[in-house]
Design brief:
Blueprint: E1 4-13, E2 22-29, E3 35-41, E4 52-58, E5 71-74, E6 80-89, E7 95-103, E8 121-122, E9 126-127, H1 128-132, E10 136-145, E11 156-157, E12 173-174, E13 180-186, E14 201-207, E15 215-221, E16 228-237, E17 243-251, E18 256-257, E19 261-265, E20 276-277, E21 285-289, E22 295-300, E23 307-313, E24 324-329, E25 367-373, E26 379-386, E27 394-403
Antiparallel strand pairs: 1-27, 2-3, 3-4, 4-5, 6-7, 7-10, 8-9, 10-11, 12-13, 13-14, 14-15, 16-17, 17-18, 17-19, 19-20, 21-22, 22-23, 23-24, 25-26, 26-27
Length: 405
Amino acid sequence: MPTLKDVEYATIALDPNHAHCLNQVNIRKLQNGQLAAIYNEERYPFHHDTGQSVIIRSNDGGKTWDYEHRQVVLPYTQVEGNWDCGLAQLADGTLLVNLTISAFFKRGIRPEQPSWASMPLTEEFGDWTWAYRMRAWLGTFVLKSTDDGKTWTLPIPVNIRPLKHGGCRLGAWQQPEGSILLGIYGRIHQYGEEDPMESTRAALVRSDDNGDNWEYYSTVAYDPADIIDYDEQAMVRLKDGRLVSILRAHINPSGDQRTLAMVISDDDGFTWTPPKFTQIWGYPAELINLQDGRVLMVYGYRRPPYGTRGCISEDGVTWDLKNEFVIREGGVPGKDTDVGGRAGIRPSRRGSGTVNWQHPGIYQHIGYPSVCQLDDGTIVCGYHEWTNEADPIQYVLCTRFKLAD
């Protein structure tokens, strides 16, 4: 089992007023030496994918982060929100952000009867679950900045046809010849995040003009029997030129999480091998090539003892549990004591206002890690957790560490 040394933890972003959940960070090392992290800032203090995308930076390798000067890439409004953001820096220095945008209907209008649904409650919407069901997915978009994020283009639509939905997980990948690949997941027949009648496929869209135009490039993984969902892929180019993608996978109709699946391409992502399930349980993942030639995969771990984990592969295609290690454990409130639930969130069966650590409900939403390696060999892995306090809030943090020889 790999061992860690020089381990440090740092908060990337935590809303000081506990008014906004922060989650799903994507961390990148920029050409100027800074670390940049993009994350979702929710419009409310609960996780509902209706907020805005924010970039925050570090000038000391992730030890401290400049919350005061964070940059909102695309602000949410009363009628729109965005989430699932990713960040890439292209060869010419351009910053490229990908995200999805949704619209809201019946805004400010309450249902005419008491709602059957669970909370939370808001002054504007009443039961937010009811308003959330009125959300409509508008599409996948990218925004570009040529002045280090000071200004951004208007959202550029990403053509994902023939898919009707194209969710994102990480930033785009620019290939050696200059083309840009963006990993998406979606369906041909249905809009929206989930559909019980059609499984989700993982795919790539491609741009050959620096992100101005996009088109469907390849199907990465798909189950024509509509049993297994493949989504939220992570991709890395190995030193021999092959592309490896690691996929989150669920089995229908239960929705249970499978171990991570792997596919390989030897033609720059145009065709892929059939999915092969690894031994690794956790989701979703990200992959990077390490300076020593090995490949590192990081992933969330949403069952006790929770947290974020990593695994080392010598070649990027052979993954063994003996090479798994813990980056951080926990992140779900209520392990040692009953922690008060947020006002308006359905309490657990253990009692009003408590969080059941074994079955934490919304509080199991942790992880979504992203990782990079600094010039001195330090690895910086960002992820999100819940604070362990009477009023838990999601926030973004990172672990800095080196792998012992």
